[in-house]
Write a structure and sequence with these properties.
Ribosomal Protein L4, Chain: A; rRNA-binding; structural constituent of ribosome; 6 strands; elongated; six-stranded mixed sheet
C-alpha cells in the first residue's frame, strides 16, 4: 500500500497514512483517462447551435422574375442559399454530444488520476481544514504555507461548503466534495489537497 505524509493547514508534517492500493496504487491507464476527459467535455456541450435552411428563412415566397425572357438566370426564391439573406446549406442543427462510458471505466480513470498524483508526489493529505473565519484569505494562507502560490490547486473535502465558497474567489483554485470529484479536475489541477475524511470516503466508494 502506498504511504504518504499527512500535514496540518500550517504546512507542518504530522505523520503518515496508508492509502488503499486498489484506489491510489493502480497502474495508470492513460487511454482510459483520455477517453473519460473527452466524454466529460463532450457531455458539457449544450448542442443548441442552429442555422436556418431555405425553408426556414422568412420571406422568399414570390418568384423574383419570370422564368424566361429576362436574360438572367432562372430563380424561384430570394431565399436560395446562393443569395445574400438566403438559407444555409449543411449548417449545424441542435443535437446531443453525449458520450457513453462504462461505470467501471469511469472509475478506473479516476483511480488512475489519483494514483498518478501519488506517484508524482502531488497529493497532500490534510488532517482537517479548520478555517479561523469563512474568508478567502484563509484558504489563500493554506496555499501559501505550502509555497504553492500561483499553482493550480484542487481541494477535495468531505462536503465542506465553507471551503468551497472561500476557494472559488482565488484564480486557479477550486474546492469540491468527494461526490463532485471528476477526471478533468484531477488532471487540470497540479496540486491536490485531500482531507483524511475525504480519503476514507473516496476509498469507500472506489475501493
Amino acid at each position: 500500500m502506498p504511504k504518504v505524509s499527512t500535514y496540518n493547514i500550517t504546512g507542518a508534517q504530522t505523520g503518515e497514512i496508508e492509502l488503499n492500493d486498489s484506489v491510489f496504487g493502480v497502474e495508470v491507464n492513460e487511454a482510459v483517462m483520455r477517453q473519460a476527459v473527452l466524454r466529460q467535455l463532450a457531455n458539457e456541450r449544450q448542442g443548441t447551435h442552429a442555422t436556418k435552411t431555405r425553408g426556414l428563412v422568412r420571406g422568399g415566397g414570390r418568384k423574383p422574375w419570370k422564368q424566361k425572357g429576362t436574360g438572367r438566370a432562372r430563380v424561384g426564391s430570394t431565399r436560395s442559399p446562393l443569395w445574400v439573406g438566403g438559407g444555409t446549406v449543411w449548417g449545424p442543427h441542435p443535437r446531443s454530444y453525449e458520450q457513453k462510458m462504462p461505470r467501471k471505466a469511469r472509475r478506473l480513470a479516476v483511480k488512475s488520476a489519483l494514483s498518478d498524483k501519488v506517484n508524482t508526489n502531488e497529493l497532500y493529505v490534510l488532517d482537517e481544514i479548520n478555517l479561523a473565519a469563512a474568508k478567502t484569505k484563509e484558504v489563500a494562507q493554506i496555499i501559501n504555507n505550502f509555497k504553492f502560490t500561483g499553482e493550480k490547486v484542487l481541494f477535495v473535502t468531505d462536503n465542506d461548503e465553507v471551503v468551497t465558497r472561500c476557494a472559488r474567489n482565488i484564480e486557479g483554485v477550486k474546492a469540491v466534495s468527494t461526490t463532485g470529484i471528476n477526471i478533468f479536475d484531477l488532471l487540470h489541477y497540479t496540486k491536490l489537497f485531500v482531507t483524511k475524511s475525504a480519503v476514507a470516503k473516496i476509498e469507500e466508494v472506489l475501493g
